[in-house]
Amino acid sequence: MKTRRKNIYIFLAILLLSVCSNGYSKWFVDVETGGVFSGYNNVRIPRDTGTQFSLSKDLKTDPALFFRLLLGYQIGQKHTLSVFVAPLSLNASGSVNKSIRFFEEDFPADIPLKAVYRFNSYRLTYRYSILRKENWKIGIGFSAKIRDALVSV
Predict the structure, then answer these.
(1) 8 A C-beta contact, residue 90 and residue 116
(2) Can you give the residue ranges of every domain in the chain?
(3) How far apart are CA 126 and CA 128, in angstroms?
(4) CB hemisphere CA count around 24 (13 angstroms)
(5) Shortest CA distance to 52 belongs to which of 107, 111, 101, 94?
(6) Which member of 29, 37, 60, 127 has the greatest number of CB atoms within 10 A?
């Protein structure tokens, strides 16, 4: 999975770098980071036969750092390509005082458990600027979005 993700990053970087440049073309980048804490995070998989338990109350979920990256390239005055990457992963551990049925697997009560909550988001966007003013812009375009979500025990 990591190799596939790395290949996607490389492909998108090459795509952005290979765009024809002219006098008005420019790169832009926006990076965000901070702490993430698990508040309400109840899971039950499958919904009808699994056991509901909390990754934040029944298990201990460690705080983590997150980051978001928006990388873009403006081609001339009208066209913009951008890539948005927002990986998010939390790790939980502990034991639960009841047996748990999760993805058709049974875990007895009071055994050590490790769980992973992942919700990664990726987006590729093209935008055509219709109107550009000093304080605002109007554009039209399309985005392809991929969400990579997983809860595992």
Answers:
(1) yes
(2) 2-152
(3) 7
(4) 7
(5) 101
(6) 127
Residue 15: in which H helix or E strand, if any? Answer: helix 2-17
Return d(Cα 121, Cα 102) in angstroms, integer. 24
113, β-bridge pairs: 94
Q: What residues contact residue 121 under an 8 Å CB cut-off, 6+ apart? A: 84, 85, 86, 87, 88, 145, 146, 147, 148
Residues 79-115 as b/e (b if ≥16 CB within 10 A, e otherwise) read bbbbbbbbebebbbeeebeeebebeeeebeeeeebeb
Query: What is the residue-averaged pLDDT of the chain?
Result: 87
* 3-state secondary structure (DSSP) of residue 129: strand
Name the region of 76 (left: φ>0; alpha: ψ -120 to 50; beta: rest): left
21-76 pLDDT tens trace: 445 568 899 999 999 998 888 999 998 899 999 999 999 999 999 999 999 999 98
Instruction: Give pLDDT, residue 72.
Output: 94
Q: How far apart are CA 38 and CA 19, in angstroms?
A: 40
Q: 46 preceded by cis ω (within 30°)?
A: yes
